[in-house]
Every structure is written in C-alpha cells, then in structure tokens.
Amino acid sequence: MLNYSFLIFSVVVFIFNSGEGCSISGFDCGDGQCIPGSWQCDREVDCNNGADEKLCNVGGDICRYNQVKCNSTNECIFTHWQCDGEEDCPDGEDEVNCLARACPFGRFSCSLSKVECIPQSWRCDGDLDCSSGDDELDCNVLNQCTSHEFQCDSRECILNTWRCDGDLDCSDGTDEVNCTP
User: Fold this and answer.
1) What is the pTM of this model?
2) Domains, the chain, ordered by start
3) SS3 sequence of the chain
4) pLDDT tens-digit readout, 13-67
C-alpha cells in the first residue's frame, strides 16, 4: 500500500527544493540538476538519479491532468499522443477508433482511414514512409525540380551544384553518374 505521508513529505520537500536552483517552470532532480518541467513523467529518465520518472503513475490508476491511461498496462501516456499515428500503448489502443483528421502544416497525410502524418519532405523521396505506401504514389507529376536543381532517377531534387561533386547526394547515386573529371 502506498505510504501517503511519505508522498506528502516528498511533495513538500520538492516544493522547498525546487526554488533553490531551478526556474519556476523547471524540475529539481534533487541532486543539483535541473531539467525543464515538461520532461517530468515523460517516460524518459532525464535526471541522473531518475527522480523525474518517480511517482509519476501513483497507485496505477491516476494519471496526470495531461495524460490518459493505457488499459492493458495502466501506463500513462500524454493525451496528445492519442491518434497521432504512432502506437504508444503496448497494444496500440491509443490509435484505435481515431477519426480521420488533417495533418498539421508541413506534414503529409498518408491515408484518410488512419491518422498517419509524415514530413512533407519525405513525399516522393523514393522511400516508402507511409505504411500504405501513399507517399510514393503519383510522384512523377509532383516532383518537378526547379531550374537550379538536378532530378535524380529516384525522383529527388538536389541542387545543381551538388551534381558531380564527388558526394552521393541522390539516394540512388545518379548525381555522380556520367561525370567528367
């Protein structure tokens, strides 16, 4: 059973210690190290002593205000991780029953049936980044290089000055083919 008096003592100690070396928005690890407060309880140990991940899921049933619980493990994940196209709960329940939504600016939506967003720069780059492969469909129309660019056989565009410079800049190496010394 959880010792609530220890928990209250720990919170009081944290409040008094956090003002000594950390900013108001920072988290005091208790050993002189300060980290951004947003790093506390993010499932990654940032403090040298691991203090930022202790007492994060008190009792297994309580998550922080900006978290939801994975039912299969009682693990807490951030609410903005739900329906983001990445499975954060071990069984993927955070990606179930998601409504199709638009991707943020600068991101490509892989398909309408599942929320999956990739950087726009990955579109038509010759690599299958979407699980559906949508990012490489209809690329012959989309990828037209500018007059200052060379188009690789893999449909990538690189700067003309990178052509025949001795470095492989195209993923297929076509920027170094038929070069004269």
Assistant:
1) 0.33
2) 4-56 (4.10.400.10), 110-138 (no CATH), 144-181 (4.10.400.10)
3) CCCHHHHHHHHHHHHHHHHHHCCCCEEECCCCCEEEHHHCCCCCCCCCCCHHHCCCCHHHCCCCCCEEECCCCCCEEEHHHCCCCCCCCCCCHHHCCCCCCCCCCCEEECCCCCCCEEEHHHCCCCCCCCCCCHHHCCHHHHCCCCCCEEECCCCCEEEHHHCCCCCCCCCCCHHHCCCCC
4) 344 344 457 888 888 888 889 998 888 877 778 888 888 877 675 545 667 777 7
